[in-house]
Amino acid sequence: MTPPITIHHLIALSGVLFSIGLVGVVTRRNVLLILLSLEILLSASNLAFVAFSRSLGDLSGQIMVFFVMIVAAAEVTVGLAITVLLSRQAGKLNADELKSLKW
Amino acid sequence: MIHPLLFYAVSALIVASALGVILARHPMYAVLSLVLTLFGLSTLFICLHAFFVAAIQVVVYAGAVLVLFIFVVMLLDMAPEIVFRVRSWTMISLGTALGFLILWQIAAASLQLKAPAAHGPAADGTTAAVGRLLFTTYALPFEAASLLLLVGIIGAIVLAKKKL
Amino acid sequence: MVAAATPWIILFAPLFACTGIVLFGRKSKRFSAALAIAGMAASLGLSLLALLHSLPEHAAALESSLPWVDLPGLTLEFGFLLNRPAILMSLVVTGVGLMIFIYSAGYMAEDPGFPRYFAYLSLFAFSMLGIVLANNFVTLFMFWELVGASSYLLIGYWYEKPSAAAAGKKAFLVNRIADFGFLIGILMVWNLSGMNGEGRTLNFLQLEERIGHLVASGAVSHGLLAAIALLIFCGVLGKSAQFPLHVWLPDAMEGPTPVSALIHAATMVAAGVYLIARVFFLFWAAPEAMSWVATIGGFTALFAASLALVENDIKRVLAFSTLSQLGYMVMALGLGGYVAGIYHLTTHAFFKALLFLGAGSVIHALHTNDIWQMGGLAKKMPATTLTFFIATLALCGIFPLSGFWSKDEILTVAFQQCPILWTIGTLTTAMTAFYMGRVFCVAFLGKPRSHHAEHAHESPAVMTGPLWALTVPTVIAGFIGIPRYLHHAAETGIHVEFNPLVAGISTLAAIGGLALAYMVYARGIQPGERGRAVLARLAVPLTRKFWVDEIYGWINRNVQQRTAIILAWFERVVIIGLYVNGVAKLTGLTGSLLRTAQTGKVQTYAAILLGGLGLILVLSLR
Known about the structure:
A: 103 residues; B: 6 helices
C-alpha cells in the first residue's frame, strides 16, 4: 500500500516545478520563452500556497494564489508589450544580443 | 488527502509538460505545454478542495494569459528557425546546478515540516468562502490589485502605440 | 640706567634700518646709507652703555627673554643674555661694523645696487648681534642660520658674476654641512639637560648649572659629553672655517672688500670662536673634546699660514691670514685659555678689519687685487700705507701693539699646556710675519709696477677716516684691561701671567719673519738656482691649496652623486612605480575584474539573483 500523500509530496512537486522554471529562465534564449518559464515559477508557488492552505486549514493561502494570478496577468501584459516593441525596434529577440545596457 | 495514484499520475503530467516548456523548440509548442501544465495544476487544486482558484486558473491564467502568449507568438511570426536552441554549456550547467540547489534546499526545508494532524477543519475553498474572505479581511489588497491591473493596462497601451 | 630692553634695542636697531631701507630707501643712496649707519650707531651707543653698567664689581649679567613655546615637555624661549663676553663682543661688532659702514659709503659710491648693499649689511649686523646676545641654543641657532643666509647674500652681492654667485653658494653649502652636526649636538644637549629629571632646557645659564651637577654626580659619561662637544664644534668648523671646512673662505673674497672686512675678519668667522666661549662649560667638562679642538685649531693655523705664503691676491692673503688667526683662537680655547681666545678675538677684529679696509682702499684706487700690479704706494697713499703697516705689525705681534698682548697670552697658555702646539704656534708666527711682510713690501714699497699704480691717489676721507679710527684700538687695545674684564666673568678656564720667555721668543720669530721678507722682497736678495728650484717644487702643493677642493669635488662627484642616483632610482622604481603606481594599477585591475560581471544580459543577472537566493536558503536552513 503506497503511503498517503502528505504535504511533503506536494512541496516536493512544487520544488521540482520551481527548479524547472528556474532552469528555463536562465537557459532559454528567446525572450518570450523566458517569460513563459517565469510563469512556471509562479505556478510552482501557487501550488505551494494551496497545499499549505489545505494542510493548515487557512483560506488565506488561496487568497494569495488569487493575487498571484492577478499580478502574473499584469506582468505578462506589460512584458509582452515590451517583447513586441523589442522585436519591432531591435529586430531580434535573442537575449544574448540584447546587452546595450552594459554601461 | 488525495488518492496516491491520481496524485502521481497528475504530477507526472505536470513535470513532463513543464519540461516540455523549457525544452521545446517552437514557441507554440512551449505555450501549449504550459497550458497542459496549468490543467494538471488545476486538477491538483480540485483534489485539494481549492475549487475557486482551480476555476480561475483555467479561466484567467490558461484562458487569458496564455492565450495572450499565443497571440504574440503568432503576431511575431516566430518560425522555428528564429527560435534558437539552448546554447552554451556554461549557462546550461550553471542553470541546472542552480535548479538542483534550490530543489535540495526546498526538500531539506520541507523535511523539517511537521506533518500536521489529519487535515484540519475542512476548509473548503468554495467561491463563497473565498469571496467572503476577499471582501472583508483582504478588501484593501483587493482594491490595490485592481489598481495594479489598471496600471498594467495603461502601461501596455502606452508601450504598444506607434507614436506617443 | 640700563633697562631690560637694552639687548632688544641693540639687536633690533639694525633690523629696523634694514626694513626702512627695503621699504623706503630703494631709490636714494644717501638715505639708505644714513639709515644703516644710524642703526649701527644706536647699537654701538647702547653697547657702550651696557659696558659702563657692567664695570662695577658686583654688576650682574642682564638676561631678558620672551617665552616662545610653552608646552609640557617643550619650553623654548627667545631671549638675550648680556654678560661680559657678550658686551665685549657686541662692542666689537657694532664698533668695527660702524666703521665699515661708513667706509662702505665711500667704497661702494659708484655701485648701482647701493641701497641693497646697505640693507644686506644691516641684516647681517642684526643676525650677528643675535648670535652674540642669544641666551639659549635655539635663538642662537636661528641667528646662526640667518648669519649664514646674510653672508650668502653679501658674498654673492655682485650676483651677475658667476664666480661670485658660486662662491656664495659654496659658503652656504659648507656651512650647511657644519650646521647639521651642530644641530645634532644641540638636540643631544637638549636630551642631556633632562637627565636629572628636571624639565629640559637649552638656556645657557641653566645648562651650565645642570651640566655641572651631572658631571659632579658622575651621572653622564665623559664619552657622551665629548661627543656632544665635538658635534657643537662641527658648527664652529663651518662658521670659523677650520680645517676641513675651510674651503669657502678664500672663495668668499669675491664679495666687496668691506664685506670681507666685516664678515670674514671681524665678525662672522668669529662667531664660531664666540660660540665655544659661550658654551665653554660644556667643553670644559669634556677634556678629550678640548684636545681635539686645540689640535684642529693649531693645525689650521699652520696650514692656512702655509697657503698664504704663495698667494698673489691681496685679499686672499688676508683671508688665509684670518683662517690662521682663527686657528690660534680655537687652539687657545681648546687648551683652556678662555680669556686668551676672546682677547685675541677682540684685537684681531680691529687689526684685521683695518688690514682689509686698507686693502680695499688700494683696490679701489688701483682696480686690481694682484700685489704684483701694485708697488710704490707709500708715497701716493700715505694714510693707507701707514695704517696698513701698523696693522701688519699688530698682526705679527710686535710690542706694544694689541696683537702682541693677545697673541702672547695664547702662546703662554700653549707653552703651559702643550709644548707641541706652542711650537706650531711660534712657527706660525714666523710664517705670518713673513707673508705679511711680503705683501707689504711688494704692494707698498718699491717702484710702481703698473700703469694704475703710477697714477694712484689717496682714497677720500670717508674711507681713510675709518682707517684712522680703527688704528686707535689696534694700538691701545692691549692696555685697556680686557683680560681683567673677562676674568671676572670666567670661572673656568686657565689663567696665565705674563711670561717674558714666551714673549721674547715670539717677538724674535716675528722680527725674523719680517726681516726675511724685507730682504727678499724689498732688497731683492734671492736664493740660488738650486734653492729656487726646491722652493718652486715646495710651492706647488701650496698654490694648489693641497688639492682639498679637488678632493671634495671628487667625493661629491663619485660618492654623493652616485648615492643620489641610486636613491633616485629607488624612488622612481620602488616607491613610485611599485607602491604608488602599483596601488593604482591594482585598483584598476580589480575594477576590470569586477566589471566582467556586468554583461548587460538579463539572464546573467537573473542567474546571479537566483544564485543569491540559493545562498540565502543554504545559510538560513543551516
